[in-house]
Amino acid sequence: MKKFFAILLTAALLLSLAAPAMAESKPFAGKTLTVLYMSSVYADAARSIVPEFEELTGAKVDVVDFPYVTLHEKALLDLTSGGTAAFDVIDVASQWDGEFFPFLTDLGPYIEKDGYDMDVWIENVLNNCGKWQDTIIGIPNANTPQVFAYRTDLFPDGLPDTWKEYREKSIELTKDGFYGVTIAEAPGQLGGVFDYILWSMGGAWADEDWNVTINSQETRDALTHLYELNKKAMDPANLSWGVEESIKAFLDGRAAVCETWPTLGVTQNAEDPEKSQIVGKWALSTIPYEKTGITLLSAWDVAIPANSENKDLAWEWIKMYTSAEKQQQFYDEFAIFSPRKDFWEQDAIKNSALYELRGALDTANMWWRIAASVEADTVLNTVVSAYLTDQMDLETAVTEMEKGIKMALENSPPEEGIKNFNH
Questions:
Q1: CB atoms within 10 A of CB 58
Q2: What are the DSSP E strand ranges found in 119-266?
Q3: Where is pLDDT greater, at 102 or 363?
Q4: Whose CA is closest to 95, among 380, 313, 387, 383?
Q5: Rounded to an integer, what distance in angstroms lies between the CA atom of residue 181 and that of residue 173?
Q6: Per-residue pLDDT tens digits for 267-276
Q7: Is 0.90 surpassed by the pTM of this model?
Q8: Predicted confidence (pLDDT) per residue in 26-81, tens digit
Q9: Which of 32, 40, 194, 406 has the fewest CB atoms nearer than 10 Å to its CB?
Q10: Are 251 and 275 in contact (CB under 8 A)?
Q11: Domains parsed from the chain with CATH numbers
């Protein structure tokens, strides 16, 4: 009996000694981390690493996602609620950085504590995504410039260099239910289409001091170009199509060009015979060069709400999600392009058609990142849609754009000292 009690005592002692070590190896055991992403591949990528993260930290992870059209509202409501954050990590579209800035955690102390290397990111992407007024409030995790996917059998020498030549060729190719172009023009997406045409032609919403400059010949040219494409080179239903419908039309072989975000369906499916009718007959290209060739940047950064109660755990998630290993995994499994410089320097990317996109990431713009950007973008979406559906003539459209952008700036004036770098 004494021997039996001695064995029990020894076992209890060993367990008591092991418990601190176990707790130390998984310091977040018992905690739950809630992360918010846009529905689609970004949320899929987050879910793919949950088992590994839970195993390493002992925490539980809940991935919540919303479509882009409602994500801003859901995130902002939680950030400004005044209570404890419902989300511990938020994947922020870069155009919301300035608006969300007062409600996000300064990541500087975490970066310094862990020696986290910020030099790995493409500078233009970081400056447009995650950095605000020299403060890092998010770590970039995904980026792509708006580009054109095109049929190489119809454009054997690549796309034309100017919008005029591009438009004329697109109209020429449109016949018998086949269309020259397809573009995502559903509500919330049409304004961005107008933007990259305007910027490439040398136009802008405003100058660096926020003086509104939208009433310009470049604006008229951009609107006219888009109008002609819609009337003469696109499916009549195209104005109601989102990214999914637009990409599907291209993959189904019903359009010569798809102006799109390539990582939302083209790069994943174009070479899959079960999903594509254009296997081996497509490529990606930067947009036609008019005056600047500047296109629209889509970039996302993972941030921590200031009212999160799990900031240390949230930072561990961000480090894993943005690591070189996971960024490569997200490309391999979901075709998400990484903002890391070394991602673009690997031979598999440098020797592929995708590498043409790398140069665009050094110059691509995001529309304003101040609070007024959402209102201004909404105005442009509404006005461009009204113009393309003949509810508004050209001059009225330009006037309404100017009025709407001025009102957005009056309702949410930029902070003193903030310059408009997108001009």
A1: 17
A2: 131-132, 135-136, 139-145, 147-151, 179-183, 255-260
A3: 102
A4: 380
A5: 9
A6: 889 999 999 9
A7: no
A8: 889 999 999 999 998 899 999 999 999 999 999 999 999 999 889 999 999 999 98
A9: 32
A10: yes
A11: 31-137+298-360 (3.40.190.10), 145-296+370-411 (3.40.190.10)
